[in-house]
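It is worth pausing here to work through a concrete case rather than discussing structure prediction in the abstract. The textbook approach is simple: state the sequence, then state the predicted structure, then interpret. We follow exactly that order.
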Amino acid sequence: MPLRIPGQPAPFDHLTTEQKQTLYERVSELISENRRQLFDRLAPLRTRHIAVVLEDIYQSHNASAVLRSCDCFGVQDVHVIEKNNPFNPAGDVAVGSSKWVDYYRYTSTADTFKSLKANGYRIVATLPHERDQMITDLDISHPTALVFGTELTGLSQEAIDMADAYVKIPMYGFTESFNISVCAALSLFSLTERMRSDSRLRWQLGPDALLDLKLHWAAQTIRDGEKVMKNLISTL
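Step two, the predicted structure:
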């Protein structure tokens, strides 16, 4: 999985758009035509308008299922808070999706939220709250970071206090809550469907971000991808 370090420049940040395009053309020679076509088709469908935050998830199958949902719904970024529990997705559940979704690792909820807010995100906690609203009514006109808590105890009080809004999913049965992976899948379906149908929202990645994404995907595809990329960059 492409791990991004908060505050650290991406490997291609120092390159111009033209250099990135040249690099992608060169690395494309090392991957199949089918894979190149897949990258070109899927990259414009990815978004960072909706992001996911996971606070202290400890069951590997839940972590993997959330990653799989993010990939399926085109949500590119997952922000992982590891205060007590390491984030350890299980590959058999993720079914390869961990290659295509970026995640950012933190040890502090406050630092995570501050970083997201500094980048224009509205923090939305997923839990019943006196000021909550249905997920279907949530305003997504601004970039939205959807926060999910640990399996047994849910979100920390710190996360609840720092959130900008609170959402819940309609339920009509005796059970009081959904499993976290189910909650994430339902929430992402609702938000991304509304996002894509709203022509006013600029939810797609810009040209540079698209190239960066395809370069990262290419590095995941080829053998010794990181080393190959570094060698190719040195020739630009």
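Step three, interpretation. The chain has nine helices and eight strands. The CA atoms of residues 43 and 210 lie 6 Å apart.
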